Amino acid sequence: MVRHQGRPAGGRLHRGQLAAHCPARRGQRPGRPGRRARRPRPHRTAAVRRLRAGGQEPAPRGRPPGAAGTRRRRRRVGGRPLPRPAGAVRGPGRGAGARRTCGGRGRRPARAVARTARRRHGTAGRPAGRAGHPGGGGVSTDLAGLPVVVTGSTRGLGRAFAEALAAAGARVVVNGTDPDRTAAVVEGITARGGTAVGCVASVAGTGAGTTLVDTCVEAFGSLGLMVTNAGVTRDRSLARMTDAEFDDVLAVHLRGTWDCSRAAVRAMRDTGGAVLHVTSGAGLFGTAGQTNYAAAKAGVVGLTRAMDLELHRHGVRVNALAPVARTDMTAVFETGAVGHALAFPPPETVAPVVVFLASPAATHLHGQVLSFDGSQLSVWTHPAPAATWQRPAWDADAFAAALTDDVQQPRHPDRWGAGIG
Fold first, then answer.
1. How many CB atoms are located within 10 Å of the residue 166 CB?
2. CB-based contact 195:166 (threshold 8 Å)
3. Mapping DSSP to helix (H, G, I), strand (E, B) and coil, where does residue 172 land?
4. 83-117 residue pLDDT tens
5. Which of 82, 151, 203, 299 lies 20 to 30 Å (CA to CA) from residue 68?
6. Packing angle, helices 156-167 and 351-358, rounded to 10
7. CATH of the domain at 322
8. Which residues touch 98 (CB under 8 Å, ≥6 apart)?
């Protein structure tokens, strides 16, 4: 061990020893030329006593009320300092170096800041061993006994969702418009040791949501999860699309989702539960030749967020998933009939995210829109302005100056093709 010459073994010097060991002029801090020593603060001990006794230390001049004593070192995640809260503003009367507070109410709690950083930088820094929580050891997706309804579950993604949920222990209501297909899926689940019943109904029909929920309650006693997956397409360019083609798609995707969600929420009013809406990339950024489908799926996203605001405080979690998989709906993109040929993963590779969202490990997720293709998982942000201008009055010249060619243009992923005739 290396010690400074003449310094005691303890390493620290008493105030009385500073002059002997530090040749700098009086008042300078040891080892840092040109730095003056901190001034004594006799008020600090008294302030600590007041705070411990439940009192309030007066905030220093220029800081908003409630901000006293809130300054701390920022926590770190993965070796990086956590970002300051988004939207933070400076306190009144402070300069460019002022400490920022969130809305003038003091800093966000450290846990909230840590959650923000984990979303941006990954799960590094999450405490280990939190059972049933992402990032902890042994995350459980056991759904033993969970009563579930999956609409449109006789083929494609819906069937994969129903089979995966049943394999995880859920009791599933399989739904479709074809009795033979519905029975086949139910038989397949029960043959593998799962529990399932069938309900033949079109979600576009009046009261279909109530019929599905009643079937679940009669068979399993309650409803814990509603997955609104049923869908149809009537692809055509806008100029050639008929009223019926537009109405058919919205009746299934948007009105059907709303009707099933309403029936589910009525059943979950006292017990809580979860609703998972299936949306699409078409509803997030649009697809040419699918104005009906894109409008319906965008409506599902809006429905998800509105329901979350209304129902989360009542114990009902609402999320949306935009899956990417090989289905009847994506066949037109795989054949190369629209743009270049694309490859999609099988539905079974997407189903695990539905099991996770249904499990106790996901109880902290609500009001979220996710996309998943079996390998890439994304969380889509809530809409936010790409650019903002503020003027006391606007005229044509002002609009032209703001809305130039530099304004961000919409970005459309190539994988969804160029358009449909």
1. 25
2. yes
3. strand
4. 444 444 444 444 444 443 344 444 455 555 445 54
5. 82
6. 50
7. 3.40.50.720
8. 62, 90, 91
Among the ranges given (55-64, 86-95, 400-409), the one the predictor scored with the smallest mean pLDDT = 86-95
In Å, how far are 59, 78, 117, 339 from 120, measured between CA atoms? 33, 11, 5, 34
C-alpha closest to that of 421 among 328, 290, 326: 290
80 in a structural domain? no
Calpha distance 204→252 (Å, rounded): 5
| Rg of the Cα atoms in the chain | 30
How many residues are given for the chain? 421
CB atoms within 10 A of CB 85: 16
Catalytic residues: 293
Strands 273-278 and 225-228: parallel
* Count of beta carbons in the 10 Å neighbourhood of residue 294: 20
The answer to the question of residue 30 being in a domain is: no
Domain that holds residue 340: 147-380
Is 272 a member of any domain? yes
Residue 28 lies in a domain: no
- Domain tally, the chain: 1
